[in-house]
Amino acid sequence: MDSSNRILYHAMLYKVWMLMNQSVFRLTLPILFGYLPLGTAFGVLFATQLDYPWWAAPLMGVLIYAGAGQILAVSLLAVGAGLVEVAVAMFVLNARHLFYGLSLLGRFRGAGWRKAYLIFGLTDETYSLLTSRSRGPDRHHEQRVDFRITAFNQSYWVVGCAIGALLGENVMFDSRGIEFALVALFIVLTLEQYHALKDLFPIWTGAAAAGVAMLVLPPAHQLIGAIALVTVVLLAHYHRLRTSANPVSPEQRS
């Protein structure tokens, strides 16, 4: 390949790369609008409640990357909790990832070096995008797109953490209510999941499970209780649908 063809080849690769990233950016726009203000809220809390340098907030977003978990960690560290207590609390809070992360192991199979990051970077919002977007027949291409989606989402969170920490150190303002961005983001993602799946049963089941947990459980256990309840109901629903789709004949029962 001569120099002119080589230049043309690399120019075409760069154009394809830019087009792919533009597509990923459009897909992740709802996450951008949720993660930036929420990450900023975390950064402000981090800088105003803990005696750490501002850059530790975005570093936490890089190494831990757990939105609600990071906010919980700040609250616990601010009242003098030990690292073991913080670690246990964050594990319990993020244990929900065990329930839906297993469903993506088959999709991540064969992803090579990307697989570890895809597992690490799996958040509620990223899971929603990965499971609701349309996919083509090229498995490896789709895994590369999954990787970019995950990386874009984490970059939004890290930038938000940095902005919030800098603001918390240098600007005095009332940040009450900014954490509602997480609720708004979940509403948008729920609507996207409904448009993709056209099934209201999981949505109503989740809402009912949350209501039951709030009525019968103390605040510290409501999240895990709601997750456990909705998981049991959805598994039973899936089993019923599978049984009705593949009925067992009398000969098979005997």
UniProtKB/TrEMBL annotation:
One of its GO terms (cellular component) is plasma membrane. InterPro entries: Brnchd-chn_aa_trnsp_permease. One of its GO terms (biological process) is L-valine transmembrane transport. It is found in: Cell membrane. Keywords: Cell membrane, Membrane, Transmembrane, Transmembrane helix, Transport. Pfam families: AzlC. The chain crosses the membrane at residues 27-50, 62-95, 180-197, 203-236. Its main location: membrane. It is a multi-pass membrane protein. This is AzlC-like protein. It comes from Marinobacter santoriniensis NKSG1.
